[in-house]
Design brief:
alpha/beta, Rossmann fold, 2 domains, five-stranded mixed β-sheet, 5 strands, 11% strand
Length: 194
């Protein structure tokens, strides 16, 4: 069992020194530290490294749960990742240690909440699909531009419709239709209406 520490700078601890000292005092021999310059769109490379080396029985030690993520859904993801690896989480200042019965209940709670969210997401998707079908639209991606659709689009454009109008009438993406017309223009060297 290894105690693996993770620290991330914040306004309360700009250098991360307080967190690192705290992690060392708890017995962490390996400490990963994300600095402000190392984060890209809330992706923390050092946290990813820490999670990657977690093995069964290891413990990821952080000063507070907030160090692991800026958002609750991402925090859930981190906690579920730790659980899937057979490891534990210890948030020192939050008095949360999943090695204890009380702390272990956090894994069960988050797994339940994650399942709950998945169920609701699936339900919302089914409702939106049914609503779209009732309105007469087809859910999913627009059709790709086949030679038949391209011929129909040329006819519509020939009678004065714009590419946008032709794409809407043929239920294809305007961008894909425009790309197909451009490709055809290159092959035939004819102008394309805008």
């Amino acid at each position: 069992m290894a105690l693996i520490g993770y620290a991330r700078n914040d306004a309360d601890d700009p250098s991360g020194a307080r967190q690192i000292r705290q992690l060392e005092e708890t017995g962490c021999r390996i400490i990963f530290h994300d600095t402000p310059g190392s984060e890209d769109e809330n992706v923390y490379p050092e946290l990813i490294q820490a999670l990657t080396i977690l093995a069964v029985g290891d413990v990821l030690v952080i000063s507070r749960l907030a160090r692991a993520s800026h958002s609750l859904p991402r925090l859930f993801g981190v906690i579920l990742d730790i659980r899937e690896r057979g490891a534990d989480l210890w948030a020192i200042e939050d008095d949360l240690d999943t090695r204890t019965e009380q702390g272990g209940s956090i894994f069960r709670l988050i797994a339940t909440l994650n399942s709950f969210e998945g169920w609701h997401l699936n339900r919302r998707t089914r409702l939106r699909t049914a609503t779209s079908k009732r309105r007469g639209s087809k859910p999913g991606r627009k059709l790709r531009v086949t030679p038949e659709i391209l011929a129909q689009a040329r006819e519509l454009i020939g009678v004065g419709k714009s590419i946008r109008q032709a794409a809407a009438q043929l239920d294809v993406s305007k961008t894909r239709l425009h790309e197909a017309l451009r490709a055809e223009e290159v092959n035939t060297a004819g102008p394309v209406a805008r």
